[in-house]
Design brief:
The chain has 325 residues and is an alpha/beta fold. It has 11 helices and 13 strands. It starts with 10 loop residues before the first helix and ends with a strand. Bound molecules: zinc ion (ZN). Zinc ion binds next to loops.
Length: 325
């Protein structure tokens, strides 16, 4: 077990202990027999919905009023949050859920975050920052190095304990909507790869607005269901993780609508990439083109290039920067 893992933190840790003895690499899943309820649209409240991309078998629906794509029926928030134990951050099925080894990928994650932060500083100078869904705290640490006063939160008790233990920052455990933060106190709120995971994304966006000072900046990144790669790949799009990890799929247009309704003005929206190892890149490429990925893997093994770092922009992850009016 990880030395930072909390003891007695509920079912996910019991499940992880079992996994550790059998195979520490299995991915976390919501139990097949967990209750799943139909969900109304998070943005407009309508219950009129049609199946969306049914070939991928993910119970995706599209709101007939506003076009939001989401999972319905689906498990409740506690079942969803229970996914984010230690095995979420380290498993052998990251094409399905979570990460192969989040902690081992620290250097790449830091490089990605440093680039994003540097760009954000065009819109806001270092001040007080809250990173929502901060995971192991790598973004917080990059931000602190650049002069930010940092705080974080995450629904994963495993990640929160790790971030606190390693960096000593003020990192809280829970859902953003349940945590008590000072209103109007922050210069920047970030939400990297988070909004597609949470049960009530509109409430998260509204809470972010309430925490920011007037003129403060909110930045998020999420897969874009309306991007060209998503349309071209159809049900095989890598954004459709085959678990219940991603419960909402946004377009840039939908994000803009939500942000404007919450009192933001969108100042920038662009497709962003990430630094990844060649091994991860080939793994994801294999989901689209197994033959090409297999031939490149031969070169990867021959030249021992698997840990090579490269910046990959698949043009299907949108990063939106918005200013509080
Ligand atoms: Zn709707």
């Amino acid at each position: 077990m990880c030395p930072f893992c909390p003891s007695g933190a509920g079912i996910i840790n019991q499940r992880n202990s079992t996994l550790s003895s059998e195979s520490a690499r299995l991915s976390p899943r919501v139990a097949l027999d967990a209750a799943r309820k139909p969900i109304p649209c998070n943005v407009c409240g309508s219950s009129e919905q049609q199946p969306f991309c049914p070939e991928n078998g993910l119970s995706l629906v599209q709101c007939q009023q506003c076009g939001l794509v989401y999972v319905s029926p689906r498990p409740d928030a506690n079942e969803l949050y229970a996914l984010y134990g230690e095995t979420y951050f380290r498993n052998d099925e990251s094409g399905v859920v979570g990460y192969t080894n989040y902690l081992r990928d620290e250097a790449n994650i830091r490089k990605t975050f440093a680039g994003r932060l540097k760009r954000l500083e065009r819109y806001v100078q270092p001040g007080r920052l809250l990173d929502v869904g901060c995971a192991a705290g790598f973004f917080l640490d990059e931000a602190r190095k650049r002069g930010w006063q940092v705080e974080g939160m995450d629904v994963s008790s495993y990640a929160v304990e790790y971030a606190r233990g390693r960096f000593g920052y003020d990192v809280r455990h829970g859902s953003l909507t349940d945590l008590d933060y000072a209103a109007g106190a922050y210069d920047l709120v970030t939400m990297w790869d988070v909004i597609e995971h949470v049960p009530d994304p509109l409430a998260y966006v509204r809470k972010a607005a309430s925490l920011l000072r007037s003129g403060g900046v909110f930045a998020l990144a999420t897969p874009d269901v309306d991007s060209l790669p998503a349309k071209l790949a159809g049900p095989r799009w890598v954004g459709y993780k085959l678990s219940e990890e991603h419960v909402y799929y946004f377009s840039t247009k939908m994000l803009t609508r939500m942000l404007e309704e919450a009192g933001f003005e969108v100042v920038n929206a662009r497709y962003v990439g990430k630094y990844v190892t060649l091994r991860l890149f080939l793994d994801r490429l294999g989901m689209y083109s197994p033959v090409l990925a297999k031939s490149l893997e031969l070169a990867e093994r021959a030249f021992k290039l698997s840990e090579w770092s490269l910046y990959v922009n698949p043009f299907d992850i949108v990063a939106v920067t918005a200013r509080k009016r």
